[in-house]
Each structure stands twice: as C-alpha cells, then as structure tokens.
Amino acid sequence: MRILRAGDYKRMPWKNGKGETVEIAVFPPDASIEDFDWRISRATVAEDGPFSIFPGIDRTLAVLDGNGMVLEIDGREPALLTTESAPLAFPADIPVTARLADGAITDLNVMTRRGRRAHRLNRIDIDGATLLPLPSPICLILCQSGTASFRRNGETGMLRDGDALLIEEATATALEIDGEARCYIVEIAAGHASTTN
User: Fold this and answer.
1) Among 95, 101, 92, which residue's Cα sits nearest to residue 41?
2) For residues 178 and 127, is the Cβ–Cβ distance under 8 A?
3) What is the DSSP string of 65-117?
4) Rounded to an integer, what is the distance from CA 146 to the centroid of its chain?
5) What predicted TM-score, i.e. pTM, was given to this entire model?
6) What pLDDT score was predicted for residue 154?
7) Considering the chain, what percentage of its residues have pLDDT values greater than 90?
C-alpha cells in the first residue's frame, strides 16, 4: 500500500491546452499522456468547451466540487453531472463537450486503455468503521473530503482532504476504514470495458 499525498501530485496542461490536470496516479509510472495503461487525475473545468480526445481510451468522470456540468456526448442525450450524480462512463475517443451549470467545477477522471485494462469508479461516504472489499488487483481510494484512518494486513495510516491510497495486489482482500469522509474508490483490472455501479 502506498499513500499518495495531495501536495505531491503532478500538475500538467490538458492535452488540448485549455486547462490544467492534476495527476494522482498513472501506470506505467513514467507514462506520458499519450501512452498510459491507466491514469487517475483531477481537473478544474472553468469554461465551456470540448474534451480532449484520447484514442483507444475508456473514461469515467465524477464531479467533486461545484454546481455541476452538462456533458454532451456524441450519440447520447445530454447528461447533467453533479456532486451527487453517479460517476459517468463513456469512450474518450468520441466528441464530448462540457457546459458548466453555474461556475467552475472540479472533476475526477479515470482512464484505461481499451483491451488492456478495465475500470470501475464508485463514490462511498464513510461514517464510522466499515470494511471495504477490494475486488480488483489494483484499487485506489481517494479521500475527497474529511479524514479516514485505514488498516490492512498490519499496515495503518491516515488520509486527509485530497490524499489517496494506492493498493496493488489487492484482489479478494478488504480494507478496514474508519472516520468521516467522502471517498471515491477506483478498481482497475485486466479487461475490455469500463463500468460503474
């Protein structure tokens, strides 16, 4: 297990140059925006406009802060995403345009290379002690707000606003977690499609 502190995340321009992305975790570890197998990042969207196109990539997006945005995804009805919406999965290689509902938002972005990796993104609200199953080989828990302590196989630690916990070789184990926090869990496995619960 590895704690990733919010202050250590890598900042870089969006692929389309119209904003900044904050990279939480990426694989391979030295991968660029062009050749990753999987990537988890945060970004602030401050104006309406098109998303970057990522050939061969599946993407899931959740709104962390702000009043929401409408995603116009090629071939689908427009979808309003808010902080209470379920994460939305869509291909990253089709035209997508964002329209802000009322001011800037911050989003969480999970991307996997189709045919090599699959992912799932879910929001969980922690209120007291709970046992969190870790069904996939790689799991990342992002503490979006609040604080949460965790324990697994004798290892312990604490997550605060913006911190993440990366767990590798997690399959068929569980994480003991306690506190008051809004978290997101990313599950990554070998596979061909991304889904959300």
Assistant:
1) 92
2) no
3) ESS-EEEEETTS--EEE-TTSPPEEEETTS-EEEEESSS-EEEEEEEEETTT-
4) 17
5) 0.91
6) 87
7) 79
